[in-house]
Amino acid sequence: MTAFTLHTVETAPEAAKAQLAGIEKAWTFIPNLHRTLAESPVTLQAYDALFGLVGQSSFTPAEQQVAFLAINVANECEYCTAGHSVLAKMAGVAPDIIAALRESAPVADARLEALRHFVEQVVAERGFAGDDAVDAFLAAGFTRAQVLEVVLIVATKTISNYVNHLTHTPLDGFMAQTKWTAPRNRAHA
């Protein structure tokens, strides 16, 4: 297995130092994902920019976290599922909804269920979810802009999920209580 460096501001390539310092200032620590991404300053910059743009979307913070979790689970990303389980709780997502999302199961809230289902269709079909899926999403009260914002969220999580798969990013300490094992790894757990 190829080892990837968990960079600090001091060890990161020059072009990533300021970005890591800004992340540390904003979050009070540097998540291991970002420390790994620092190996490629342009990839770190892209992920950080996309993540910030999701925060400017028309989805509520709770809806953003529902979408993030649905994508993380669909992509079987253990790191991001653990991390976004904490962020979802902080955004006010109910524990039963978080638990359902972690198992790719339907959620009781009809609006959040429509979001979860649509996001999973977009991921599974690589964007070819079809007109019926879009129409059902719109019928649930979402907008055409939010159809496109789902693509933004998918793009953001594709970067982090794939990086974590390729680099085996270790969980951060704050994720200890929300560790999640992907279905493909459950037999080995």
UniProtKB/TrEMBL annotation:
Domain Carboxymuconolactone decarboxylase-like, chain residue ranges per copy: 45-117
Name the UniProt record assigns to this protein: Carboxymuconolactone decarboxylase family protein
Organism: Bosea massiliensis
Taxonomic classification: Bacteria, Pseudomonadati, Pseudomonadota, Alphaproteobacteria, Hyphomicrobiales
